[in-house]
## 1
Amino acid sequence: MIENAERGTTGESFEDFLKEQGTLEETTVRAVKRVLAFQLAEAMHNQKISKAEMARRLQTSRSQLDRLLDPDTDGVTLATLTRAAEAVGRRLKVELV
């Protein structure tokens, strides 16, 4: 329920808003992909791993790696994400909440 913001009360949650709009699932998927792409790129940067080296570690092409790191590309499998995490010394953790 949305309450009057002028009186200093809070409105509904953003999640409730997205549910009402019918976009919660799509928005969540996009947000998760963006976070994972950011974390992989950050790990590569911190470890000074070039895109060419990362592609070699994943046994894939640079263009495939670019799709993996593109926050707007959502067709990435869990297997690929797991391999990418391992390539930078990390683990992929997936849980249902």
## 2
Amino acid sequence: MTHELLKEIEKGSKSALLKKRIITYYIHNGNSTITDLSKVLDLSIPTVTKLVEEMCQAGFLNSYGKLETSGGRHPNLYGLNPESGYFVGVDIKMHSLNIGVIDFNGELVESRMGIPYTFENSIVGLDTLCVRIKEFVDSLALDKGKILNINVNLSGRVNPESGYSYSWFNFGEKPLAQILTDKIGFKVSIDNDTRAMTYGEFLKGNFGTKKHVLFVNVSWGLGLGIIIGGSIYTGKSGFAGEFGHTPAYDNEIICHCGKKGCLETEASGRAMHRILLERIEKGESSILSETFKDNPDVSLETIIDAVNKEDMLCIDIVEGIGYELGKHIAGLINIFNPELVIIGGILSLTGDYLIQPVRTAIRKHSLNLVNKDTIVTASCLKERAGMIGACMLARSRIFEDTL
């Protein structure tokens, strides 16, 4: 029955689209009565009752008993059936994969962090990615026929609607999402990694009731997720949020995008790695000095660990990056006037070493009247944000609709 509804949605039948809207409502609001649902959808109670009964018979919804009220009839509560479908999320890191699966209700069923994988832009890299995903899916103790979608996070320019990635695995005319679908054997969607992290925090993190939020992803690169009025802002082609490629410096450092002086060249994990290596080579002391001599390709995780072990050189560098980042976030605050700015990505795992300089720079460089509206905080989901967000996007790509 699940796949029958998916086919109906793809055909665009009126009944299927109404059912899709009902699922969207329950995703964001939890269990509720038919009366509440009919008000939101602006449909008659008999119409909603018929749709809900059909969805219960199909296994999408469950009846969760009577709603306790102070008097009169006690209406039935309905909500999503968690076992009616599953959604897999894949978050690609430079040297590993984080993969998880959620049920239809959005609860994490299983996850694996740090699956070994070298992210390289080649056919071999793509094939290996597909093998790792299939290995994870094969290991799941659930009905594989109920896996409705897999979402893969990628950095850089991603158009989730067309399924094209313009930064990774862009080898031919066919959309990457379709290539992955063919290779893995399940429906696959793709999206930008920072947008996935933002969406994960929105549904499962520390947004609360806030509707105007910026999520700054400070990883190897630097990205921005934007929530406006409770909805993710993607831009015309899905490319919104390329914060790291703001022209910010006259430093002659070539960014990986090919241009010089991008913000990312001085405020990112890649910048942290380069600056630390340069300062060690100049004779400054760090607990990583010998490590860099043996192998300059030190992982960012190793550097973050050194910061949290109070290595003074690493702390000094991350604080400098935080201040530079904060100056430019100040500009975003002046433009967007957000309620909340969340700092995520691997550099956020240094905690106040990064966050406090960001706050200091924001106070100095943004308009006082504007920044008073804004709370600046670290990611609640931390390293799990991208994986959880990927799972949630896998579900939203199939079922969510704008109410």
## 3
Amino acid sequence: MVDYLLTEEQQMLKELAHQIAEEKIRPVAKEHDETGEFPWDIMKIIAQSDLFGVYIDEKYGGTGGGVFELALVTEELSRACGGIAVCFAASALGTYPILLFGNDKQKDKYLPDLASGKKLAAFAVTEPNAGSDASAIETKAEKKADHYVLNGRKQWITNGGEAETYVVIAMTNRSKGARGASAFIVEKGTPGFEFGKKEDKLGIRASATRELLFNDCKIPQENILSREGMGFIVAMKTFDCSRSGVAAQAIGIAQGALELTLEYAHQRHQFGKPITSFQGIQFMLADMATELEAARALVYSACRMVDSGAKNVARASAMAKMYASDVAMKVTTDCIQIFGGYGYMKEYPIEKYFRDAKITQIYEGTNQIMRGVIAANLVKELAKKK
């Protein structure tokens, strides 16, 4: 692997996450995939290892790192199981809105428990009729004296039902379209807040994906993030940070698949030789390794841009997410091809990597939307030059 000049602390973080992945996650990945049981035992191990706070300020109990450190951990955990890894990463997705837009009181109240892993977070934007189109959100929050009343439904929420802290995007002024959305912190157990069905998914089956149901759910006024009308900005700025995490998940899944395939191909003999001696297989392995390394370089670069405080990181984050997830899908597809008929059987772990990779092209913005974001930024930059 290319030397990315990690600091000593970053290398130690990577090695710790790798150890947890190999010793704790890999032995139970198949079981959690089959049963869909949420991996609370693994979450506790990750919490005890102080990994939940790698991107959170030390004053709130974190270790003071950033998106890059979060990506390093997510990548290593995803090598063993994308489903278990996303339980960890999705908590960061739900935490970032508070980290970016919370006031001091909100940060003091919520971040310590999230940094310690005592509680998990989730982020709720998607609805049955509102995915990529944020202006179509139907969940509404109506102002009533010193509180808001939340009504509506969110769909396909990762960590839904398991998390304690939710950031929910709802409309406070529908006439303003996307600019009429606001962001609220909603706690599990709040009257009027319930959970719908747990989804039966193709991949990342160890993670919980549920509906969130709001029926006259009373939210204190102090639980609004930033101010009314900032919901869309909260979501977009959060995705600028979190999309690199999805990209890291993708390269972790692809790396894990490639390692299994390389080992299998070296052991598998045809015509009296290991299939790694055949040029056709060699070229496939070389292409996979090269594309994966290119994706990793792009992801790490995007993470460092975000952590540096660069103003416009939307394009870099979109590029990282789009390219890394496309590579992950291609790599896992080619890995199954090298496994041949064995790759199609659930007895072998490679088909799980294929299933887990697919969602990285879809959530936190489909790759078609990512291409739109990239193109819009290119056109905008061109207009500035004229």
